[in-house]
Amino acid sequence: MIDTIYIEKEIESNPKTLQILGKFKSARKISIDRYGEIFNRKNQNFRLQKIRPNLILAKKHKGFVLPTPEGFGIGDQKNFYFSHMYNCLYDCSYCFLQGMYSSANYLIFVNFEDFQKEIQKVIEINKEENLTFFSGYDCDSIAMESVTNFINDFIPVFRGNENALIELRTKSVQTRIFEKLEPISNCIIAYSLMPEDLAKKLDKKAPGVSSRISAMKKLASMGWKIGLRFDPLIYCEDWRKQYQNLFKRIYSEINEDNVHSISLGPLRFPKGYFNKIFGYHRKEEIFSYLNINSRNTVSYDVALENEMNSFCKNELLKYSSKKKVFNCFS
Amino acid sequence: MTKKVEKTSVRWVVALMPEANPIINALCLKKVDSALTFPIYKDEEEENWLVVSGIGQISSAAASRFLFEKSNAHRASVWINIGIAGSKKFNIGDLVFIDKVTSSVERKSYYPHVTPNLKLNNRSELITVDTPETNFDKESVYDMEGFSFFNVASKFTSIELIVILKVISDGPGSDLAKIYKDKISSLIDNQFKKVSFLLANLFSLSKNLNDQTESPEDFEEICEMRRFTFSQRVALKKLVQQWHARNASRGLVRVVSSINTSSEIIRFLEEELRRH
After folding, report:
1. What are the structural domains, with CATH classification, of chain A?
2. Number of domains observed in the structure of chain B
3. Which of residues 149-178 of B touch A (CB under 8 A)?
4. Is B4 within the bounds of a domain?
5. Structural domain contains residue B263
6. Could A282 and B100 be called an inter-chain contact, meaning their C-beta atoms sit closer than 8 Å?
7. Are B74 and B88 contained in the same domain?
8. Judgement on whether residues B54 and B168 belong to the same structural domain of the protein
9. Do B273 and A49 touch (CB under 8 A)?
10. Which member of A172, B111, B151, B172 has the lowest number of beta carbons within 10 Å of its beta carbon?
11. Are residues B182 and B231 in the same domain?
């Protein structure tokens, strides 16, 4: 799977580095000073690298935990996100990471302990408030678990900190790691979902929607809280019917009590990201419906965006209580 | 007008004539003009172009730039530096794919992309030095051009299309004066088949990049039908691309041919695309 690993000299003997390297014994290891020499280089092409991404192991020096953009949240007073990894195993056509990064290599920050300390610090400072920490903004939280051991290392940080929720955003159907852990009520395993036909076309290399629903069902039966994330909502000719069927399907498998929250968000991109992504996927129909809007972002027409949002929200309210449904417009 | 890339566009940069000869023969290249600053060779289809740079980083950089200008290289052209090098780790005759190149003077490194499905087992760091290396302190490969070649070539193309290949010609204790021309040619010639296999993978990347950058179908034809300003061309390009993503089978040229002005064509496309 990985045949080349770039390793920052500074973290060559970090235990996490050694643990990860132990999984790729035959890979070629190349010593580097800073990950930016590879990851941030100009004149490289995300799509060409996505054919066979390499792995970069690095140290993050600052910005371990950041406030989320406005409009991003699931009900708590304060929202934060953190990224132990950039880029993803999957290759979803609409993924904004393609527009954000020039490299498709997987970048893992191995100094987990610095992220953990910062999370503890934020929890301590805000102990009177309810907080949510989002993981999976710049990567899939679970897809690379066999390499990173991320879940195993971060769930204990939240155990006992009841005022702090952690959301693990994913499309992965790996459930084994959760079988080994005692469920905690302040962890949400949040699945990105869209109608199966759309996912078949767009969510390349990701598990199918049926498999994701099965994984959710299994996790719910183990006592883990589930999040349903319809973000982005994708337009297609019969989108109403497709989303109706999807919601019906999910709630025929998952008990509403096991669902912590639902969020909906429109397909939208900063203009610069969109131009790059549309260049990569010129024949992808979903991008043909998007236009630049008054917020200088690229999205569906406001009328369509609102229609999709309210239709899906109303459909979901047939199955779920209103307090669990959130809009995400960040 | 957007230039279309030739299907197998490669630019070869080699330091010495004995290194160039096996490539010239294998690809049936002919000398372009005898009075050029650097000797340049090309094939009949103008897909393969080769420059002989001479030894050293300055020559390699200058020759690469010269080749870029003379050959009208495309953004999706493949750039290859191939030549002999020294090493204490590899055997004489081994072909080595370079995945890190460091300047011994600048103390700076570049990291050439590892071509997918690379079938070459030998990979190494290359250290580019300014005087011939005889000590071979490190386990790396040593040459006198690679770093500056990569630095310059990365201004012409995406780094995934730049490759440095070295054939080991000497090691500790070698007498450089005794590496004869015929020996150099034979070292390169013996490995050229493996290089050809690598080219197939590089062409696939090149095609992928070209698909990302070439104008959408019908765009140039529509531009010629009416007079479009620069900003109208930018808008038109996106609209044509969106049209084709949604109406793959509908010929756009026919649809817009009866529209009188460039602004009306743009307005027509915007309205058509707005109607879901």
Report:
1. 62-83+110-327 (3.80.30.30)
2. 2
3. 154-155, 157-161
4. no
5. yes
6. no
7. yes
8. yes
9. no
10. B172
11. no
Residue B206 sits in a domain whose CATH number is 3.40.50.1580
B120 with B257, same domain? Answer: no
What's the per-residue H, E or C state across chain B?
CCCCCCCCCEEEEECCHHHHHHHHHHCCCEECCCCCCCCEEECCCCCEEEEECCCCHHHHHHHHHHHHHHHCCCCCCEEEEEEEEEECCCCCCCEEEEEEEEECCCCCEECCCCCCCCCCCCEEEEEECCCCCCCCCCCCEEECCHHHHHHHHCCCCCHHHEEEEEEEEECCCCCHHHCCHHHHHHHHHHHHHHHHHHHHHHHHHHHHHHHHHCCCCCHHHHHHHCCCCHHHHHHHHHHHHHHHHHCCCCCHHHHHCCCCCHHHHHHHHHHHHHCC
Residues B103, B140 within the same domain: yes
User: What is the average pLDDT across B239-263?
Assistant: 87
In angstroms, the Cα distances linking B24 to A291, A309, B12, B43, B150 are 51, 63, 10, 9, 22
Q: Residue B247: give the domain boundaries.
A: 219-274
Examine the domain organization and report whether B142 and B28 are in the same domain: yes
The token duo for B265 is 């064509």
In this structure, what token pair is assigned to residue B261? 């002005």
Q: pLDDT of A178-217, one tens digit each? A: 999 999 999 999 999 999 999 999 999 999 999 999 999 9
Nearest CA in chain A to B207: A48
Report CB contact under 8 Å: B154, A301: no
What does the pLDDT read at residue A136? 85
Which pLDDT tens digit goes with each residue over B7-26?
A: 679 999 999 999 999 999 99
Residues B64, A18: Cα–Cα separation, whole Å: 41
Among chain A residues, the shortest Cα distance to B75 is held by A43
Q: Does B59 touch chain A (CB under 8 A)?
A: no
Q: How many CB atoms lie within 10 A of CB B256?
A: 22
Beta bridge partners of A230: A264
CB–CB contact A288 B100 (8 Å): no
Q: How far is CA A183 from the centre of its chain?
A: 20
Predicted pLDDT of residue B276: 57
Last residue of a domain, one of B195, B213, B231: B213
Taking an 8 Å cut-off on Cβ atoms, the answer to whether B208 and A6 are in contact is no
Give the model's confidence band at B251: pLDDT under 50 very low, under 70 low, under 90 confident, else very high: confident
pLDDT at site B2? 42
What average pLDDT score do residues A34-50 get? 96
Please choose, from the candidates B215, B257, B258, B212, the residue with its C-alpha nearest in 3D space to the C-alpha of residue B240: B215
Element housing A125 (H / E): helix A112-125
Q: Answer with the one of B213, B229, B254 that is the final residue of a domain.
A: B213
pTM of the predicted model, to two decimals?
A: 0.94
Domain assignment of residue B261, yes or no: yes
Residue B59, Cβ density class (10 Å: 0-12 exposed, 13-18 middle, ≥19 buried) = middle
